[in-house]
Amino acid sequence: MDDRLRKCPECESTNIIRDPRHAELYCADCGMVIAENLVDLGPEWRSYNEEQANKIRTGPPMSYRTHNKGLSTPTPKVLLRTKRLRGIISMDGNEKSLSFALGEIDRMASALKLPNDIKEATSVLYRKAAKRNLIKGRSIEELVSAMLYITCRQYGIPRTLKEITAVSRMPLRKIRRTYIFLLKKLEIKLAPADPARYIPRYCSKLGLNDAIRERAIEILKRDEGTGTARGWAPTGTAAAAIYLATVLNDESVAEKELAKVAGTTPITIRNRYNELEKRLKLSANVLSSSSPLPKKASLVV
Predict the structure, then answer these.
(1) Is 122 exposed, middle or buried (CB count within 10 Å of its CB: 0-12, 13-18, 19+)?
(2) pLDDT in tens, 52-103
(3) What is the C-alpha separation between 5 and 123, in angstroms, rounded?
(4) What global pTM score does this model have?
(5) Topology classification of domain 195-280
(6) Architecture field, domain 93-185
């Protein structure tokens, strides 16, 4: 309400009533009509059929996932093809490049089963890089792949460069090179990836129960980030913790199957396990190929 309408000009009462039915603003004490023919800027929430449900006075929210941020004028369905052709012709080279990049972000993020928040944040990051002229001379696919990885790291989403490369059209070395380039130019600082975030997804793919998942996370908490400080890959550390948890719970999982799910090798899992065993003081080296799997293993507290 406007400041000048907070009081009635007749009796100076502050009991002002807005009547949306009659589009009036009046004083409840003296009855004076202060304003009339008020415009309701809200949507038509009441609807009795499908046709009336579309009668709204507001459009969709602004989104960075489309090249025009979703602020274009609605077009009737019969003119959709005309609108598409007119839009393509009217766009310049930069807009076409942006439109293609945003489409690639949506495609790759959908293939990786990432939420819309990641798509939105990656689109904002691409626009920021384009504004600083960092996309010239580089492939859109490698830029989008690197930015998706950066956004996943920022939001704590457990996705690796290998997983992003699997849905991209660019090799891993180019994506890694662009990733380092963007971190430097955009001055982005990322915390080391937490191996515990990979455990729920790996356990789900392996069909392991909740007890294994909680035990593996507990093992990494006892490790207190030593593996992260040494620069270990989070996937190998998470896989070793899962293997260790299965042993402590008297269950078994194949090393090759675990290595395939984690995107690492059985040798890496053995090496990481040996380090965990050494720091957490486990009873025996259960990953040794020459020794059988023990019945029980326990942590020395």
Answers:
(1) buried
(2) 555 555 556 677 777 666 665 555 555 555 555 555 555 666 778 888 899 9
(3) 43
(4) 0.67
(5) Cyclin A; domain 1 (1.10.472)
(6) Orthogonal Bundle (1.10)
